[in-house]
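Dear colleague,

Following up on Tuesday's group meeting, I ran the structure prediction for the two-component complex that the binding team flagged. I've pasted the input sequences exactly as they went in, so you can double-check that nothing got truncated or mislabelled along the way. The structure tokens for the whole assembly follow below. Feel free to forward this to whoever is handling the docking comparison.

Inputs:
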Amino acid sequence: MDFSAFIDKMATRSGEAIMPYFRSSLAADDKSSGGVFDPVTEADRASEAIMRDMILQEFPDHGIVGEEFGDHNPGASHVWVLDPIDGTKAFISGLPTWGTLIGLKRDGTPLHGMMHQPFTGERFSGTGEAAKLVTHNVERILRTRACADLSSATLMTTSPLLLTEFEHAAYRRVEERVRLPRYGCDCYAYCVLAAGHVDLVIEAGLKPYDIVALIPIIEGAGGIVTSWTGGPAHEGGTVIASGDRRIHDAALRLLDA
Amino acid sequence: MDFSAFIDKMATRSGEAIMPYFRSSLAADDKSSGGVFDPVTEADRASEAIMRDMILQEFPDHGIVGEEFGDHNPGASHVWVLDPIDGTKAFISGLPTWGTLIGLKRDGTPLHGMMHQPFTGERFSGTGEAAKLVTHNVERILRTRACADLSSATLMTTSPLLLTEFEHAAYRRVEERVRLPRYGCDCYAYCVLAAGHVDLVIEAGLKPYDIVALIPIIEGAGGIVTSWTGGPAHEGGTVIASGDRRIHDAALRLLDA
């Protein structure tokens, strides 16, 4: 089965569902019970509904884990992991740094992943063995860049405001050592890491659907992605991605200090 | 004189000069004398050189203030204020949230401004009286949105790490009151404010070329932009932009508290 072609079709359909809502005036519900602002949009729901329909029709025995509509048959050997709009806050702020995440796990291991940015027309995808960026039919192989030492690294995180006090202290130990720390960008940060433009992404509090689709892209580009304790990242929680093993190990030591 | 058509031509030529460098591997010089990382790229210089040539040829008696090549005849009645790549750190990180800023002052007052994002194909422009966004030949009028109270506002700043301790304390007094604070985005933040997607942008340490081109866009969309003390913003320094006078006044009171 050529899952890549199917994922491409899902991305196209999902992008068509989302784009009419981007930069339109829309009311963002607040699905969180007070506290952190967590917007949900019609676009989110429309996109996930379409992708779920396509999967159910094409692969009725596959499972689905999605941000908006919960789990369906999550114990299946093949499970799709969907986040229709990763970076909803960027989306409602009119910024182009959100993306649609489409991941496929086989027997628990991320096998295929795509980050689709329908406004810029970018499709970052990977299989764990290889990764590419296709922008308006122009294809480019993704490779992370070498980075021997934290002192020459660019580090990204979506926002320090999303970290607990304990996590922030650990994050700060790395931030203080790097050359250039940058905030913002959600899934986009992992994709520019895969493309060799930044060296580290460190986040916490992720859900599986925030990271599963990105793992085959990062690893396919030669990068490393684990939890802050060096374990697998696909369950979410704390996540660190690096383009070079040397700074990954150095950052893990600081996070654990 | 139709300055708008000339600005459009400058944007096109400048974008052609910049794009070959975007997401290519390029060494970023460090023009700062230690301390904060301040990258300069060949793209920056190539773009500004082209825009300066165009101005000198078309308007030999106009002045030019540019980020890369300094001042030329800055006492002229018409002075162009150029920042070829505002958001150089975003640029070298492969992110699409940088832009080319082209401003024109007459007798010291910003008269025309454009923010051009050649990767996404967006041109935000304004005259102080009106503002528009043209994306791939589709034109849209820009209007800021109403926001009666800070508690429902989205606030952006490029990075709290760019603020002094004193500025950060003032900034935090506003941040603690808003609904959604977001980091990142340089000039792009002011443009999504003009487009009615965010409500406030608060920054400090800006140069004139970081803000002059954005003033006619923000004001043309119905927004307000001043220093943190309510004075004119076109000399740079501390800057606050708002889509609605009510939250502008509320934020000024907190910044000055």
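The first strand of chain A starts at residue 29 and ends at 30.

Cheers,
M.
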